[in-house]
Design goal:
The chain is of the alpha/beta class. Helices cover 26% and strands 16% of the residues. It has helices at residues 27-35, 49-58, 78-84, 143-148, 159-174, 197-200, 224-254, 288-291, 315-326, 341-346, 453-469, 474-479, and strands spanning 2-8, 37-39, 42-43, 46-47, 88-93, 112-115, 180-185, 261-267, 272-273, 279-280, 292-293, 295-298, 307-309, 354-358, 363-366, 370-374, 385-388, 407-408, 421-424, 436-439. A hairpin with a 4-residue loop joins strand 14 (354-358) and strand 15.
Length: 485
Amino acid sequence: MKAIMVMFDSLNRHLLPPYGCDWTHAPNFQRLAQRAVTFDRAYVGSMPCMPARRELHTARHNFLHRSWGPVEPFDDSMPEILKNNGVHTHLCSDHYHYWEDGGATYHGRYSTWEFHRGQEGDPWIGQVDDPFIPENINGKPRPQDWINRPFMSAEGEHSQERTFKGGLEFIERNKDADNWFLQIECFDPHEPFFSRRHYKDLYPDDYTGALFDWPKPKQVDEPAEAVEHMRNNYAALLSMCDAHLGDVMDAMDANNMWEDTMLIVWTDHGFLLGEHNWWSKSVPPLYEELSHTPFFMWDPRCKVAGERRQSLVQPAIDLGPSLLDYFGQKPTADMFGKSLKGVLENDTPVREAALFGYHGKGVNVTDGRYVYYREPTNGGAGSLYNYTLMPTQMRARFGCESFENVTLAEPFSFTKNCRTMKIDASREAPENPQHLLFDLQNDPAQEHPLQDEQIEQQMIEHLKRLMKECDAPPEQFVRMGLVED
């Protein structure tokens, strides 16, 4: 058996034709929906990038116990389990966060890996003098991005192009071999929305202002024509992703791989492009555009194609058990996610509700009909900690001051009897916490928050139950105002 995972970053469900969008050019996503199962209720787990990837490895939620960080010594890693049981696992990616301090233990879990440089602020090309940066509507962007871009200007040299080329070369080399898992993971369509001219030409507009292809995480205050231009820049990068997805499907067609090769296409989260008057993902509530994600699977065992599934799933934690099951391995006792084999076959449900959020921010839950966003309520009285044996963050190690009052926590259910460091990460709770409840069936655009105490209490019970099942630290219940008698 073989498996190919194509993973995108910041891929918007609502801008894909299989989910009803009629203005983006993405024929290969439509083609994918005809060859695979399309999931209609797929949700994120831990936000954003590396927390979601830790979930892919461990099949457990990350955000209740620590912020952005690496795979921990006590973590069970799905790719490593496969590697240790005779399945060759290969990571081909331009997602440069894997090679920073906060992600440096992920790639080593695979049998082999390759990294294609150049995205965003990747410290790739060494240049001492400041680069030329065009006038930008958001002010001066990161210099490294503009040092890198000229080295990706030629056709075929964009890091997304090189990433998919590397994945296709792996397929060509190993098409006749058995027992392998290929993860083709591209940073796009993550911002900045840097794509080829012929993709931009698919989305003409009348914008004549300064460069605008990298929105800041803030409320929208730009004119309407700038907002349209930003959406068009995103759509152009989406179309570029679609073209390369088509290349993978072409390779499967050419080599008759649909008979013995699983195909998974998913993303870590979405992106706000002016919806709810917000840009980006890190500040606003986790509206549907951020948390409700596209997800497709083809399983050659059941051969279900062109159908849709309504069961509530969370790819970040469910794909680990699903791939282990596919390759004849059992998930570990610490894995929280579920194999999706039954969902693929006949839409057998795997959960009542799904928990998701950012470390240190709100805790959110959906049952597929309702979604509930709950902010911290304690005015800062409840502490917040990172529980870790790997004290690194996104691009840096924890500062020495972080360890001045460090203590050792008692083991959690999943830490293999290890006592982790308990490092203070406290932040002030909102002065006026806002809890939002939406009825997604009757208000899919989330324009009218629902006031219903009975439904809110039902969602709170889901929150408490799932937090307990995740062995959430006690202070998380205090922070969220969920302390029981």
